[in-house]
Design goal:
Number of helices: 10
CATH topology of the largest domain: BirA Bifunctional Protein, domain 2
Protein name: Bifunctional ligase/repressor BirA
Number of strands: 14
Family: Belongs to the biotin--protein ligase family.
Radius of gyration: 21 Å
Shape: globular
GO cellular component, one term: cytoplasm
Enzyme class: ligase
Oligomer: single chain
Helix content: 25-40%
Catalytic activity: biotin + L-lysyl-[protein] + ATP = N(6)-biotinyl-L-lysyl-[protein] + AMP + diphosphate + H(+)
Structural class: alpha+beta
Strand content: 25-35%
Length: 322
Amino acid sequence: MTPRTWQLLRLLADGEFHSGVALGRQLGVSRATVFSALSSVTEFGVQLQRIRGRGYRLLPAWQPLEADQVNAALTENAACFQLEILQQATSSNTELLRRASLGATSGCVLAVELQTGGRGRIGRSWHTGLGNALTFSLLWRFNCGLNALSGLSLAVGVAIMRALQRFEVAGAGLKWPNDILSSDGKLGGVLIEAQGDMYGPSSVVIGIGLNCSLPNSLAQLITQRAASLDQLCSRAPDRAQLLAAILQDLAGVLQQFSSSGFAGFQEEWQRYHLQQNLPVRLAMPDGSSVNGIALGVSDSGELRLATADGVRLFNSGEVGAC
């Protein structure tokens, strides 16, 4: 979408009707320019209502992310991060990986209002709409090598769960290795992409996506059961509060992980594990599957399954109900 389109969407963010004439007057452009700038927004999943004689309005209202609000909520942790909010990007992870290769510093955060090509685990797409989700990526640099980062995505899941508990998100939990779930479906996920040497130093881009709401137009694009924060909270947090809370908890978790790895998070991760001690089926990358009881994870983040052949450890695969 063009910069002019984004200017208009901000004017429409209150969810009230605004005439094309009034919008044009505010921006110093013609009504025809307003019409042209808004004509293709539905292609990006933006729900815009047009009524002759009344004008335009967004459905629902949109609360844009504001960097100053996030930084204020971060309080003393604001110094740990350099936050930038992009109006639109194909993928926050892709863009931050590019910047990391050019020397971006540890603690850089890119939050995106509208992702047009969000990526999930094993090549899946991550669908979002304007204001419907919190999608951001964090660059973190480690002195250790890639071989010492085992269990990092699980530690990130612990940080997310700590943040969600502040907002009394009912029924949320973790699924190995990087999903945030509820009984209604997937609430969010983590995508870790690493750069560096096996023996150090290394850097990771941590991508996090959480569904804040699920309008029907968006739910129809998602090919699995999904849930959203507004379904699980009596009063869902606004995205600035949520982003600040997750970053605050990530700061502590990543610092601890840097010094001692995943082992210190093992028991806490298992408390959040929704499939703990339940029968599961693990689909393997080669097409085979393994049935067993999910016993949690090892101190390096591997999935522990009690199978017919004894307790086995796995570092890849897709977990499903048995």
